[in-house]
UniProtKB/TrEMBL annotation:
Gene for this chain: queA
Pathway in which the depicted protein is active: tRNA modification; tRNA-queuosine biosynthesis
Organism expressing this protein natively: Tenuifilum thalassicum
Role played: Transfers and isomerizes the ribose moiety from AdoMet to the 7-aminomethyl group of 7-deazaguanine (preQ1-tRNA) to give epoxyqueuosine (oQ-tRNA).
CC terms in the record's Gene Ontology section: cytoplasm
Keywords: Cytoplasm, Glycosyltransferase, Isomerase, Queuosine biosynthesis, S-adenosyl-L-methionine, Transferase
Catalytic activity line of the entry: 7-aminomethyl-7-carbaguanosine(34) in tRNA + S-adenosyl-L-methionine = epoxyqueuosine(34) in tRNA + adenine + L-methionine + 2 H(+)
Protein's UniProt name: S-adenosylmethionine:tRNA ribosyltransferase-isomerase
Localization per record: Cytoplasm
Length: 350
């Protein structure tokens, strides 16, 4: 497959800037791979497509407020710092992206918050935009983390939403089942599930399995090569517990449906498969890049948002649903004015 095959015309006004009022009341397009039929429903109707003993697999990663605004010493120039991952807890070392990068050099100090409550020193250059920061903080680790997160904003993708973060994002840019902190982007398919809907699914006898993939910025990295076999995905940390693997494998053995909630779950499940197509527990990293054609071993249903043109997420969905059918469905979604992107509507592929 070539990059140019994942182009489609997306009017800017169809990219959702804000979520719908109630999580489970976004629109849901249902795509049937066998018949090619497309249905238009509301997200909470997903319960009608799942049967007793089917399993929904969720990504329980938790987004942390990773975007900070600070000032450079002497010049006072405003600097945006995007926290990527903690490198060393004791030394308060973090891997970050800085913008504008050209102004930030090793040895520079950055100041954050009123009265410069937090100070960081640049100690290394990792990439053209990347830096390693050492935060200088006298208190305990808990106090440091509290201060850091108080100053931080939820890292909503500004270029996609075409807006800055707002206080409401603290709650809405997070799934209701988020547990393990470490993501700098939300697994967006999961944003549609409400507590009420989960309860109804549970009463119907649907099983829940939880995996973890800490979503990194690689999610938004553009593909710069026409030949997709030459694109390299960023590595992201994953965890599949023995308990989650058991739930999924039992469902498969009994020939019930395994539904991946989102492309992050899809990638995680397909990153740890036995030769006979079952799920293996894993604690490690994945840089798996899925694009058509691809034979999926574990899930046979997928919930996903509507992704942007040329994105690796669209490629993954096309691999699952079939390239022609998915690209046709996206044309229908544009015509029917579905909402696209992070806070947009959902698609269920069965």
């Amino acid at each position: 497959m070539k990059l140019s095959q994942f182009k489609y015309n997306l009017p800017k006004d169809l990219i959702a800037k804000f979520p719908v009022e109630n999580r489970d009341e976004s629109r849901l397009m249902v795509l049937n791979r066998k018949t090619g039929k497309i249905e238009h429903r509301i997200f909470k109707d997903i319960i009608e497509y799942l049967n007793e003993n089917d399993t929904l697999v969720f990504n329980n990663t938790k987004v942390f407020p990773a975007r900070l605004y600070g000032n450079k010493e002497k010049t006072g120039a405003e600097i945006e710092v995007f926290l990527l991952r903690e490198l060393n807890r004791e030394q308060r070392l973090w891997d970050v992206l800085v913008d504008p990068a050209r102004k930030i050099r090793i040895g520079n100090k950055l100041y954050f918050g009123e009265d410069d409550v937090l100070v960081a020193e640049v100690i290394d250059n990792t990439t053209s935009r990347g830096r390693t920061l050492r935060f200088l903080f006298d208190g305990t680790y808990e106090e440091f983390k509290q201060t850091l997160y108080k100053l931080g904003e939820m890292p909503v993708p500004k270029h996609i939403l075409q807006r800055e973060a707002v206080p409401e994002d603290r709650e809405r840019y997070q799934t209701i089942y988020a547990k393990h902190e470490g993501a700098v982007a939300a697994p967006t398919a999961g944003l549609h599930f409400s507590k009420h809907l989960l309860k109804r699914l549970e009463i119907k006898g649907i099983n829940f399995a939880e995996i973890t993939l800490h979503v990194g910025l690689g999610n938004f990295r553009t593909v710069d090569v026409e030949d997709l076999t030459k694109h390299k995905m960023d590595s992201e940390q994953i965890l599949i517990t023995p308990e989650a693997a058991d739930i999924v494998n039992k469902t498969k053995r009994e020939q019930h449906n395994v539904c991946a909630v989102g492309t992050t779950v899809l990638r995680t499940l397909e990153s740890s498969v036995t030769t006979d197509g079952f799920l293996k527990p894993i604690e490690g990293w994945t840089n798996k890049f899925i694009f058509p054609p691809y034979d999926f071993a574990v899930p046979n249903m997928l919930v996903s948002n509507f992704h942007l043109p040329y994105s690796t997420l669209l490629m993954m969905v096309a691999a699952f649903g079939g390239y022609d059918l998915v690209m046709e469905a996206y044309k229908v979604a544009v015509k029917e004015k579905y909402r696209f992107g992070t806070y947009g509507d959902a698609m269920l592929i069965i």
